[in-house]
TrEMBL record:
Protein's name in the database: ATP synthase mitochondrial F1 complex assembly factor 2
Family: Belongs to the ATP12 family.
Source organism: Phalacrocorax carbo (Great cormorant)
Coiled-coil spans in chain: none
Main subcellular localisation: mitochondrion
Amino acid sequence: PPERKRFYQNVSISQGEGGFEINLDHRKLKTPQAKLFTVPSEALAIAVATEWDSQKDTIKFYTMHLTTLCNTALDNPTQRNKMQLIRAAVKFLETDTVCYRVEEPAALAELQKNEWDPVVTWAEERYNVAIGSSTSILGPNIPASTKETFVSHLASYNMWALQGIEYVITQLKSLILSMGLIDRHITVEKAVLLSRLEEEYQIQRWGNVEWAHDYDLCELRARAAAGTLFVHLCSESSTVKHKLLQD
């Protein structure tokens, strides 16, 4: 359901046999498939607990992106294994937003070149691959070696982090922008702007629908930020150093 009346007062975390759990008063949080909601790191548990604690009179599930990602990782509704997740992520290269260029209007073509070329160049140097771009409707011809390099790189992530990576890619419609964001090469605001470059160009030229544009922009930023945070929290140590919490 999109919303539900808040039924708990306090939110806490505890460590169980399988990881860190979320407690709503004295109830253990469960996934949609009724599995015990258990996450691999304390930092992620704290972040999820914060989402639940931030809900007011009603629980707005559509605002709880970290909780949703955890549910997906735990329930795995599509029943995919690690290699299937990786292949699905790498397949986005074939239709990557920053690889598709226009020839007209000239102003947009120039904008794409100025804004997208630097991040493509960064990715080529960072991963030692060839990517390129194309004005053809078929898109660029991505070498098989490039795809395999990204497959090998993504294989270094665990299943939880891969769920987050695919989520970010789906939001930005770009593997290249997503890796730039996850590698901390670009900010969330920059990644979202680059993913919406043509739309932003049209808005600057023709104006925007009042409130709708701002809502879409903020929502995309929230999703991209949550997905990136999820990847980082799933890739780090399982416990938070308590000295840092005390400081």
